[in-house]
Amino acid sequence: MNAIHRTGFSPAAACDKEPIHIPGSIQPHGMLIAFTSDNFLVDQISANCASFTGVKPEDVVGKPLSAVLGDEGAQWLIAEIANQNIIARPVYLGALKMPNGSFFDVMVHAWQGLVILEFEMISREKAADFRLLYPLITKFVSTLQDANEIESMCAIAAREIKNVTQFGRVLVYSFDHQGHGHVLAEAIDTGYHSYFNQRFPASDIPQQARAMYVANRVRLIANANYTPARLVPGTHSVTGEAIDLTYASLRSVSPVHLQYMRNMGTLASMSVSIVVKGRLWGLISCHNTEPREVSFETRSTCEQLGQILALHIDAHQERTESAYRLELRGMLVSLLGALSQSQNFVDNFSMVSHDLLRLAGASGAALIFEGKTTLFGATPPEADVYELAQWLATQMTGEVFNTDALSAVYAGGSAMKDVASGILALSISRHHKHYLIWFRPEVIRTIDWAGNPHLKSGQDGAFQALTPRQSFELWSETVVATSKPWRQSEIDAALEFRTAILGVVLERAEAMAELADELGRANKELESFSYSVSHDLRSPMRHIVGFTDLLLEMEAGRLSEKGTRFLRNIKESARFAGKLVDDLLSFSQMGRSALRTSEVDLNALVENSVSKLQSEITGRHIVWNIAPLPPICADPVFMQMAVQNLISNAVKYTSSRETAVISISARESERETVFEFKDNGVGFSMEYAHKLFGVFQRLHRMEDFEGTGIGLANVKRIVERHGGWVSALGEIDKGATFSFSVPRNLPTEEGDAHVKADTTR
Amino acid sequence: MLKPILLVEDNPNDLELTLIALEKSKLANEVVVVRDGAEALDFLNCNGIFNKRATGNPAVVLLDLKLPKIDGLEVLSQIRSSAKLQSIPVVMLTSSKEEQDLLRSYQLGVNAYVVKPVDFGEFIKAISDLGIFWAVLNEPPPGSIRANRRS
Fold first, then answer.
1. What confidence tens digit (pLDDT) does each residue in B69-122 have?
2. How close B27 comes to chain A (CA, Å)?
3. Which one, of A732, A726, A731, A733, lies nearest residue A712 by Cα?
4. Contacts of B14 in chain A (CB under 8 A)
5. Set of chain B residues whose Cβ sits within 8 Å of the Cβ of A535
6. CA–CA separation, B84 vs A55, rounded Å?
7. Model pLDDT for residues A345-373, shown as the tens digit of each residue
8. Under an 8 A CB cutoff, do B118 and A543 touch?
9. Contact A542/B95, CB-based, under 8 Å?
10. Record: contact A542-B117, CB cut-off 8 A
11. What pLDDT is recorded for position B70?
């Protein structure tokens, strides 16, 4: 067994260049005459004419046709030609009696300004009888219609052609996309070697032969050991060139091909082209160990059978393809329906992963979208898929990429060959590296070649390159690291899916824009709401406080102690509610107003904050350890609020300490400046640290420490609007440390939009 | 003769508290009270019910921002665009420290902008500070008269 990667075999270059259409000779089982239709004078004639007619070629060249065919024969022929539309494809004119009494079938065709007559000797006197053709074809068609698979159609054709031609072996094979022939059906006599299911490498049939097989649908080599009959003269009298025998059935074939036949042990061969949609789909290849002549009517019958087979194959492929496309369309519709189900693009994919895989006939898929890799089914690990996507980004120029042998093109492919020997990748964004990739697992296959195809080439020199291969012995090749190939219809469906996804992605972008609009509107509403709150909710609080104060003042003497206390409670509550409104407003303002950055001296802000706290500080023993603080770029008003909050917190939560120690320091790194506010107060449990910076989050009872629970939320909002972070460290009764950072490259003024955009995420 | 203080206030509670605060600050000026923006402009321009009043501008206008009919900002803007009135000191008294109101007021040429504090003690202090500064300390422009307090 040989383990190789499938690469495709280099065709024998020399073979591809051999001018097989102008061999300058014919096979000797017939005779050829070329003339120009304007004068009916023999221009070229095959040298074997002597053996058929008794005339020497040199004696008749330049003479009228009657010199060869006799007056009667020539008149009949000229009259027949006048009645026919002579085209490139040979037309059967009938049987002709030569002056020497022998009978010939006569075929005529016109090619490149010449009329070419071909004569094949027959034993009968009458023209070929095609009456038997009709029932034979009727039977053939009805049997073909019962076949559901291409293979069984081919088997029927092989049997029928063998019947008609009596050849020892008839193979029907198709060409794959690389040009290798795959034997789909076979009919053989005992003693013949079987080639069923084997492959003939593409190099067995050179390119120009394939082109000729489309033009000329039946070719017979009656005896591989024949001696060619050359044409006399060798070139055309007017053009001076060798005659093009593309359409001539007697065309002499390449000596390489004859050797190939002898190597294969077949002295007679005939091949019938299977042409589907103008392309050479395959061949019906007939072999016989002994030489065998096949009459024109039999060849015609085979050609008809070949065409009928081709039509049935075409229809079958169309049916299969359209059924398949219909199924794909159904899947596509259900997929797209699901994809527009919810806002979350990636989640939608997860819901229909089964259909997603079915669409491309894959066993795994990956969606690389907005920096996230989502896997479905059997795939390589996420990291490998990500790597693959990076590679794809450098490889893909179009919308789609596919391979059935990833490891042959991608270095990381071998490691993932089990699940991803084949990939079909779609780029699903015009601007981003977003991909949808389908995976197919490795399928280890054994290909049986009719002889080792690798031996044919690689011999030295042009002379050797024209040597056909020697061996047709079974040679098995194991193909690894290869998946089932991607069908064109699967790639087409993927591309259609891509178009639809792009639509969904686009729609998503639109939805995002709409959402942004809506957010903007909601924000505006919120703004006007908080505006009303600030005016309308604050006023009654103020009134309650004001009138309670007045009452306490005016009626001080007449109130009971309890009454006075109640009034004080009312006043305090109203005052607190007022403060709550104030704090909430400043919090909402913080999110709305623009940052106006400039250089800020934190030392001054700290000093200012401490002086504002004078009333709280009076009578307390506080040790301030304030290190020199570096200047930063920030919004001074907001920064003042943040510092004020942190210092007032430090003062507040150290109130129970005989000696409060409050330390403020800073450290600078390349990227940011970090400020630290440390106190020896009551601290907090780290369990609740995450709640500290939330709005209305309080960790202490109101009686212990008054506060609205907005202060730290404000600090966080201010710092984050500057692009920095906040953190809190503490332990119950052991003090607390609050830190915040301000980036050093904070843009001033015009860069504000960027900071704002960040906070709205 | 001291010129009057024009107080423009629509909320009766605020009006009462402001008057008490002014009283407590022991200012000698008369206080003229009007209840909306239209009335304020009528007073200043001697129109409508004020067409009989003695001419002359008040010492200071204490102007609430949110007012019926014509709001405080509009009143301020009309004062500043009138040749006769433009030199009158205007103090905006408001419930809110909304940035946009503050900015707009300064753009229109307000002399001071006071957010009424929730604490009444602070409010009294703010009012008396203002009164002393604008009504007592400021040199009255020529042609000022003392008006009778109306309320």
1. 888 999 999 999 998 898 898 998 887 777 778 888 888 988 888 888 878 888
2. 19
3. A726
4. 539, 542-543
5. 65-66, 94-96
6. 137
7. 788 888 888 888 888 889 999 999 887 89
8. no
9. yes
10. yes
11. 87
Kindly determine whether residue B13 and residue A538, on different chains, have CB atoms separated by under 8 Å. Answer: no
Q: Which helix (H) or strand (E) holds B62?
A: strand B60-64
Task: Convert A228-250 to b/e letters by CB count within 10 Å (16 or more is b).
Answer: bbbbbeeebeeeeebbbbbbbbb
Q: Nearest CB to B119: which of A531, A545, A593?
A: A545
Residue of chain A whose Cα is closest to the Cα of B19: A546
Per-residue tokens: B37 = 């923006």
Q: Report CA dihedral (A626, A628, A633, A635) to the nearest 10 degrees.
A: 30
Q: Which residue of A has its CA nearest to B24?
A: A550
Nearest to A545 among B20, B97, B120 (CB): B120
Which position has the token pair 């197919």?
A440
Cross-chain residue pair A547–B116, CB shorter than 8 Å: no
- b/e sequence A109-123, b meaning 16+ C-beta within 10 Å: bbbeebbbbbbbebe
CA distance A532 to chain B (A): 9
B32 and B4 Cβ atoms separated by less than 8 Å: yes
Please state, in angstroms and as integers, the Cα–Cα distance from residue A327 to each residue in A295, A333, A514, following that order.
48, 10, 36
Closest Cα of chain B to A700: distance in Å? 25
Taking an 8 Å cut-off on Cβ atoms, the answer to whether A535 and B96 are in contact is yes
Q: What ipTM does the predicted assembly reach?
A: 0.76
Note the pLDDT tens digit of each residue in A133-175.
888 889 999 999 888 899 999 999 999 999 999 999 999 999 9
Query: pLDDT tens-digit profile of B16-71?
Result: 988 888 888 777 788 899 998 889 999 999 888 888 888 788 888 999 988 888 88
Tokens of A270: 């005939």
Instruction: Tell if the CB–CB gap between B118 and A582 is shorter than 8 Å.
Output: yes
**Contact present, A106 and A117 (Cβ < 8 Å):** yes
Strand A42-46 versus strand A91-97 pairing type: unpaired
Residues in A lying within 8 Å of B, measured between beta carbons = 531, 534-536, 538-543, 545-550, 574-575, 578-579, 582, 585, 589, 593
pLDDT above 70: residue A463: no
Residue of B nearest to A550 (CA): B120
- Per the DSSP assignment, residues forming a β-bridge with A45 are A33, A232
pLDDT single digits (tens) A704-761: 666 777 788 888 888 888 888 899 988 888 889 999 999 887 655 444 434 333 333 3
Whole-number Å distance between alpha carbons of A287 and A13? 26
Residue A696 is predicted with a pLDDT of 66
Helices and strands counted in chain B (H then E): 5, 5
My answer on whether omega of the bond before B141 falls inside 30° of 0, hence cis, is no
Q: How many CB atoms lie within 10 A of CB B99?
A: 12
Query: Does pLDDT of A85 surpass 90?
Result: no
Q: What is the DSSP letter of B64?
A: E
